Amino acid sequence: MKRRDFIVKGSLASSAALYAPTVLGYGTFSVNETINIGVIGTGDRGGGLIPFINQIPNMQVVACCDIIPFRLSSGLSKVEGKAKGYSDYKKMLEDKDVDAVLVATPFSTHSKIAIDALKAGKHVYGEKTMAKGYEEIAELVSAADESNSIFQTGHQYHSSRLYSHVVDEIKNGKIGKITAFECQWNRNGNWRRPVPDPKWERMINWRMYREFSGGLLAELCSHQLDFANWVMGAMPEKVMGIGGIDYWKDGRETYDNIHLIYSYPEGVRASFTCLTSNAMGDYKVKVMGDKGTYILDYAKAWFYPEGSYEKKIGEVDGVSGATLNWDQGRGIPLQFDHEDPSKQALIDFRDNIVNNTLPVSNAKTGAMAATCVQMGLDAMYDDVIMSKPQQG
Questions:
Q1: Which of 11, 64, 174, 311 is 20 to 30 A from 202, alpha carbon to alpha carbon?
Q2: Res. 27: pLDDT tops 80
Q3: How do the residues of the chain divide into helix, strand and coil, expressed in percent and rounded to 5?
Q4: pTM higher than 0.85 for the full model?
């Protein structure tokens, strides 16, 4: 059996059941213990998560690792308290003071580092996209299955209480029968990081090179793919896509614009667009049904009812006859207090370790999104319609 067949036929065959919390049968932490975190990869993402960890009770960063010296220094400078510095992640994994690791390294290294960490007995928060390549995805799913440690994939919107609320509303019939998703993540910028020395070019700008990166699809659209899978409780059956290096002529290998359509069961289509030349609309997810639409951005959501809807008159703040809130073009804004999704994901990681629970964003849901990414890359790079292997 091919590795890609293994992912779909074996590990992910019962995908709808993966989103329910499950209590696991192991664990050593109590609610009052502090979980010591080692951050592997202290660039933009890894370094950016350290301040959140500083704010979370019973979590602390005790070690940082990066192969680029100034990135390591930057990461260490963000830690509240003392932390050890490592240039070799395997040395960090030997540190018995480290209970868990956050893996925020280039995409191509995720699987190897996460597997080594699980084998070392560490809990793992593995940044998205979970793994690059079908074989690497399968190997990481197997390692997580065989481990007594918690593995959480870093699709932070999966931890968002706002997004969870919207998913529950959709599943309870709020928008009726789902017919389509429209997703975009547009930016206006070349996506490059400054390089103080040319020798660091491929290490710092790894997102530009196919050897290390899945480009815009892996780095941005993977979040929205994870959301679509979550809502549908299924993986798409096929994908078609196109992209190109059409604007930034700077030696990059990954596309500067991508446009894909994924086909889910029952005729549901999901479109994904990502530009680097125009930021109109920025980040947006639309879930469209025959009774209405949910629109989401980073931290807000709106419900747009279908049909000849007139703004309802009702009791608002105790004033009879007041008009309910309505944002032109987007509908009724959801009034919903919630934590920053990245911080919430780390809080969930802590709680999953303490309570021995399977994360809602786990190795198998992460593998579903990663498989969708690889299918999309194959479709674009090989100019084919890429189908999901049939389940046996």
A1: 64
A2: no
A3: 35, 25, 40
A4: yes
